[in-house]
């Protein structure tokens, strides 16, 4: 966790330094009679709202992960723990949005141009998905064994929730996105392939691993939480009553991996503690195909997304310590409401 905080602080500091030289007031017209374009005001809106989102969002996420982990340790159900995790970043997001709304209405100039060729918007969405772990790979920290799993089914307690803000013209669009995602492994039989020798604690020796093995994984063997912060770009297709578009996006992932089990090499559940509690920064990407029903000041939309999120972390203890990595692959059905910023 300390390593994550340090790297995140450096990224945030660099961002704030770059923004500091871009005073929102300086780039807006100083003369009340001058035209304030929507593009100018939107730029200042982003410079005021995104830094606070990048600061409070991840820190509230990490605090929520801690609350959820403590809830598991205290014996609460995973559903209760996930509820405690979710409330914290949602509350922070509500406060940031309230502050951004106040800045937009009371501090920034109102645009005076009448150019409606570009639509500036904010979106709130919900995005239930079908997901699975793909290509899980584990390697002993001692280098003496490795294992892989082709696929593991995942479930959700709450669907992904997110916020987007950006612009769209008649030909293309772009927006910034922050979202919260939580997944867990379902109860299932997993088919592992092994190679090498692994330490046997009972006999204090290394033993040969079978080439393949079926392992019964309990529900919530892994509990995954992520905050996605990224950019989407899309091409707007010809309108036929609804507005279709196609594009993609990529961004930074703040990932948390928790479990009461040390790892696939050790399925002895630890009561009253988390055997695995790792946080890491990674990246993810997605494609998207969507449809918008446009109104004068708002729109409703439905979007289909194949998403690919990378995870890499350490698990296990002692001579059973291992390095794990996998891709969380999902097909998301995203729908929400977009409203005009102006």
Summary?
With 342 residues, the chain is of the alpha+beta class.
Distance between the termini: 40 Å
Q: Decide which structural class fits the backbone.
A: alpha+beta
How do the helices and strands follow one another from N- to C-terminus?
HHHEEEEEEEEEEEEE
Q: Mind telling me the CATH class?
A: Mainly Beta
- Percent of residues in beta strands? over 45%
| Tally of contiguous helical segments | 3
Largest sheet: 13 strands, antiparallel
CATH architecture level-2 label: Beta Barrel
- The mean pLDDT is 85
Number of beta strands: 13
Helicity, as a percent range:
10-25%
Within the CATH hierarchy, at the fold level, what is the topology?
Porin
What's the Cα radius of gyration? 23 Å
Number of domains: 1
Overall form: elongated
Runs with pLDDT <50, length 5+?
Answer: 12-33
């Amino acid at each position: 966790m300390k390593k994550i905080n340090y790297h995140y602080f450096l990224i945030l500091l660099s961002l704030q330094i770059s923004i500091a030289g871009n005073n929102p007031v300086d780039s807006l017209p100083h003369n009340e009679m001058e035209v304030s374009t929507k593009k100018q005001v939107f730029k200042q809106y982003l410079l005021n709202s995104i830094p606070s989102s990048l600061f409070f969002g991840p820190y509230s996420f990490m605090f929520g992960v801690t609350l959820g982990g403590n809830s598991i340790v205290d014996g609460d159900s995973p559903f209760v723990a996930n509820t405690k995790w979710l409330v914290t970043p949602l509350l922070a997001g509500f406060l940031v949005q309230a502050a951004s709304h106040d800045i937009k209405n009371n501090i920034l100039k109102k645009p005076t141009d009448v150019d409606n060729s570009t639509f500036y918007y904010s979106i709130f969405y919900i995005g239930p998905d079908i997901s699975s772990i793909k290509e899980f790979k584990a390697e002993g920290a001692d280098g003496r064994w490795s294992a892989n799993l082709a696929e593991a089914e995942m479930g959700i307690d709450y669907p992904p929730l997110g916020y987007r803000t950006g612009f769209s013209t008649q030909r293309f669009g772009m927006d910034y996105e922050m979202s919260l995602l939580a997944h867990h492994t379902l109860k299932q039989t997993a088919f592992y392939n092994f190679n090498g020798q692994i330490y046997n604690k009972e006999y204090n020796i290394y033993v040969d691993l079978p080439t393949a093995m079926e392992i019964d994984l309990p529900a919530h063997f892994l509990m995954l939480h992520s905050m996605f912060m990224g950019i989407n770009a899309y091409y707007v297709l010809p309108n036929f009553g609804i507005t279709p578009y196609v594009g993609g996006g990529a961004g930074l992932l703040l990932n948390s991996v928790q479990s009461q089990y040390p790892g696939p090499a050790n399925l002895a559940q630890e009561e009253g503690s988390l055997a695995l509690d790792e946080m890491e920064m990674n990246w993810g990407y997605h494609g998207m195909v969507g449809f918008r029903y446009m109104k004068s000041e708002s729109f409703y939309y439905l979007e289909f997304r194949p998403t690919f999120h990378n995870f890499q972390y350490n698990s296990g203890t002692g001579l059973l310590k291992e390095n794990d990595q996998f891709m969380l692959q999902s097909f998301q059905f995203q729908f929400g409401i977009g409203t005009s910023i102006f």
